[in-house]
């Protein structure tokens, strides 16, 4: 994969099959309203950015499309803009994938997208009576991948997409897609920063060896999240709220669904020297810590897609290509401890890239799931887990409200008695 310069200072990667992808983009997992998204995209493009990373699951495709059209009307050539959109695993299957692609273009009103990706290798089959019943014929996960990839190849043939890719796939899963023939896997997107697992690093190396470009997400979340305590949930609260595990039933806290949203905070004493070293590197280079972390990925031929809303942060995220980190700085970041800190943990924890959580018959062999769980029951299992957690929290809230009401009642009654005695 060759790194070139394009659009001023921003580098880009040559993609297999032709074409190129800017190495610094704007991640659209923001949760903003469509109009706010459109304005953010427009400002980003006018400031020189050219890579937009979005997904149907983010529910802002319409805003991204509106922002792109507004920028094109302002004079930015559409061919300079690289738009990525991912298809969620909830629609895996041939017909349902084509329907999802129709939704993409209906909402975005774009003539084409530059990259269509599968959002995750995990496919769940809808329950009877829900949408996309044709997914019932996906007897195995591999069959689901095959049917979905066949649908994307058809979209590619119509010219509505320029490249096809995946996200969160391991080497074995990508090898299977490559074995189907046809267009190559152009890009694999996965979490990548100095604190990822060895599995993440192995997948990046495998992709580069096979000519597949890599995009990193969550480049900044782990460091700043742990530094400022955003991932804090005391262990004693876990156990008291969710109970202990038994051989037949893992503790609710340890079940995969909740493990994604609650992560141990790294002790401040452990993060402080890392923070000081990063600040020293940034100060020496007259850059920010965020730029140092992004440059670490870029210097390994990995594109980055950090979120940003202010013009200053957008410019900083684009100014990564006219300087570089010294070898000792790269070595320091490459050998970070603790390892295995990832933000995307659903549903298999930080080692989800190891794969093989379901056999070809779709039966779970992952310790975090009950024995024998079928992959088409995963959604139902997580829904039940979430409902159980919500019931616990609602019950706790009800107890607190009842206790508060009782206290108020007792205080008022005592006050009333005191007033009667005075009279």
Automatic annotation (TrEMBL):
SUPFAM superfamilies from the UniProt entry: NAD(P)-linked oxidoreductase
Domain NADP-dependent oxidoreductase: 33-331
Protein origin, superkingdom: Eukaryota
MF (Gene Ontology): oxidoreductase activity, acting on the CH-OH group of donors, NAD or NADP as acceptor
InterPro entries according to UniProt: AKR, NAD(P)_OxRdtase_dom_sf, NADP_OxRdtase_dom
Protein family: Belongs to the aldo/keto reductase family.
Name the record gives this protein: NADP-dependent oxidoreductase domain-containing protein
Naturally occurring in which organism (per UniProt): Polarella glacialis (Dinoflagellate)
């Amino acid at each position: 994969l060759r790194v070139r310069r394009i659009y001023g200072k921003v580098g880009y990667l040559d993609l297999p099959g032709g074409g190129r992808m800017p190495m610094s983009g704007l991640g659209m997992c923001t949760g903003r309203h469509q109009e706010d998204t459109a304005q953010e995209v427009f400002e980003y493009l006018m400031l020189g950015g050219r890579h937009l990373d979005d997904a149907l699951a983010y529910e802002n495709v319409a805003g991204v499309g509106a922002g792109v059209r507004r920028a094109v009307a302002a004079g930015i050539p559409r061919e300079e803009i690289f738009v990525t959109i991912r298809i969620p695993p909830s629609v895996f299957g041939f017909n349902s994938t084509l329907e999802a692609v129709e939704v993409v273009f209906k909402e975005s009103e774009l003539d084409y997208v530059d990259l269509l990706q599968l959002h995750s290798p995990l496919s769940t089959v809808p329950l009877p009576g829900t949408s996309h019943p044709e997914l019932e014929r996906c007897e195995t996960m591999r069959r689901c991948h095959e049917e979905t990839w066949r649908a994307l190849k058809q979209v590619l043939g119509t010219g509505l997409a320029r490249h096809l890719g995946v996200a969160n796939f391991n080497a074995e899963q990508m090898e299977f897609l490559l074995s189907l023939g046809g267009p190559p896997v152009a890009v694999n997107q996965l979490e990548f920063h100095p604190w990822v697992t060895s599995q993440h690093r192995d997948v990046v190396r495998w992709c580069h060896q096979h000519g597949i470009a890599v995009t990193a997400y969550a480049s900044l979340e782990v460091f700043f999240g742990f530094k400022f305590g955003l991932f804090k949930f005391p262990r004693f609260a876990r156990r008291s709220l969710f109970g202990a595990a038994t051989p037949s039933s893992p503790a609710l806290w340890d079940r995969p669904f909740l493990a994604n949203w609650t992560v141990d905070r790294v002790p401040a004493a452990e993060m402080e020297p890392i923070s000081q070293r990063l600040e020293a590197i940034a100060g020496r280079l007259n850059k920010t810590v965020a730029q140092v972390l992004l440059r670490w990925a870029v210097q390994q031929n990995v594109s980055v897609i950090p979120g940003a809303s202010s013009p200053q942060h957008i410019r900083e995220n684009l100014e990564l290509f006219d300087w570089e980190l010294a070898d000792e700085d790269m070595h320091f970041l490459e050998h970070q401890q603790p390892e295995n800190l990832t933000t995307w943990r659903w549903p298999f924890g930080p080692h989800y890239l190891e794969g093989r959580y379901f056999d070809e018959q779709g039966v779970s062999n992952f310790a975090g799931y009950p024995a024998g769980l079928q992959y088409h029951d995963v959604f139902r299992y997580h829904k039940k887990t979430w409902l159980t957690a919500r019931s616990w929290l609602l019950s706790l809230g009800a107890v607190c409200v009842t206790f508060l009401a009782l206290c108020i009642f007792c205080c008022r009654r005592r006050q009333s008695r005191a007033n009667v005695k005075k009279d």
